[in-house]
Amino acid sequence: MDLRFNNSLADQYHSGSQKARILTESWIERNLFCPRCGNAHGGLDRL
């Protein structure tokens, strides 16, 4: 699990809340998995 954000994704945004959303959504897509089966979720639409 990578605990770092890709800060370059938020460079084009000015609002702190927009930056937080972009960074956390990207991190979730890369790191979230099902603890039961171990499969990657592959996106926020499955949450």
Give a structural overview.
The protein is an all-alpha fold. The chain has one domain (about 15-45). Helices cover about 35% and strands about 0% of the residues. The model has no long low-confidence stretch (mean pLDDT about 85).
Short summary:
The chain is mainly α and 47 residues long.
Q: What's the layout of helices and strands?
A:
Elements: H1 16-31
Features of the shown structure:
47 residues, mainly alpha, 1 helix, 0% strand
The radius of gyration is 12 Å
Helix-residue proportion: 25-40%
Mean pLDDT: 83
Sheet with the most strands, sense and barrel status? none
Distance between the termini: 19 Å
Give the beta-strand count.
0
Which structural class do you get from the secondary structure elements? mainly alpha
Which sequence of SSEs, written as H and E, runs from N to C?
A: H
- The number of domains is 1
Please report the number of helical segments: 1
Shape: elongated
| % residues in beta strands | under 5%
Low-confidence stretches: none
